[in-house]
Design goal:
Number of strands: 14
Strand order of the largest sheet: 7-6-13-5-14
Largest sheet: 5 strands, mixed
Number of helices: 5
Helix content: 10-25%
CATH topology of the largest domain: Cyclophilin
Order of helices and strands: EEHEEHEHHEEEEEEEEHE
Radius of gyration: 20 Å
Strand content: 25-35%
Structural class: alpha+beta
Shape: elongated
CATH superfamily of the largest domain: Cyclophilin-like
């Protein structure tokens, strides 16, 4: 499926390309397909290409003098895409402990939603999520696909210290805090997986377009995996899929 895209200058060095303002897997696939094609064709030029849920920012090393010519070039790339191409993705199984010690906001969500904690955990862990992009913090995954029954407004007063590995929901999204930081999302549990290692050539093992499934584990298993993660000896189970 091809979309009606909007192209506009975004400062002297950049062009912003926009899709319909929705969080949708088909849009994500189109964004990433287009992004990869731009990267392939601009391989000899100094450009940085950044995507969000429904946009791409093409940031050039030099000032764009002929903006219409450059936009025309980008439009030609998009028109030549084969939207039927299947993309190879990785499905990551992320062990997560939903114990009360970690899921500090489960009780509040349970009361507000009039659902049991086990129902919330089941809904959250039975879904396969799409990784739309990585940002806010190095290794912070923005995940789409949250069950509508778990939509929950962000906190009016953020926590000043959300623990590393916290699995949380905010609005229509879920995500994982890769390090200790302030945050306004509601915390359901914690994953012992290390999502960002600055000393690794590939600091974050997950990339935009991948898929995530949370796998409930006991506190005992959590501690075992945490020990391995601290020594960089743990890698989550993964499966290659085509979507």
């Amino acid at each position: 499926m091809k979309y009606q895209l909007k192209y506009r200058r975004f400062g002297p060095h950049s062009i912003l390309i926009e899709w319909p303002s929705i969080i949708d897997r088909n849009v994500l696939n189109d964004v990433l397909n287009y992004k990869n094609s731009i990267i392939d064709l601009y391989i000899k030029e100094k450009v940085e290409i950044i995507n969000t849920y429904n946009s791409i920012l093409v940031d050039y090393d030099n000032t764009i003098d002929k903006i219409n010519d450059e936009i025309f070039k980008l439009k030609q790339i998009y028109s030549s895409l084969n939207s039927e191409d299947k993309q190879q993705k990785t499905l990551w199984e992320i062990p997560t402990c939903y114990d009360d010690e970690f899921g500090i906001d489960l009780e509040d969500i349970s009361i507000a939603k009039k659902m049991s904690k086990s129902e919330i955990i089941e809904l959250h862990s039975n879904t396969i999520y799409d990784v739309y992009f990585i940002g806010f913090l190095p290794g912070f995954l923005y995940l789409g696909g949250l069950d509508e029954r778990l939509y929950f407004n962000r906190k009016s007063i953020p926590n000043l210290n959300v623990k590393r590995g916290s699995v949380a929901i905010g609005g229509q999204q879920t995500g994982i805090y890769p390090q200790n930081s302030p945050g306004g999302w509601h915390i359901l549990g914690n994953s012992p997986v290390n999502f960002f290692n600055s000393e690794d050539p590939k600091p974050c093992f997950v990339k935009a377009g991948d898929m995530i499934k949370f796998v409930p584990i006991s506190k005992h298993d959590y501690m075992d995996i945490l020990k391995l993660s601290r020594e960089n000896l743990y890698q989550p189970k993964s499966t290659l899929v085509y979507d």
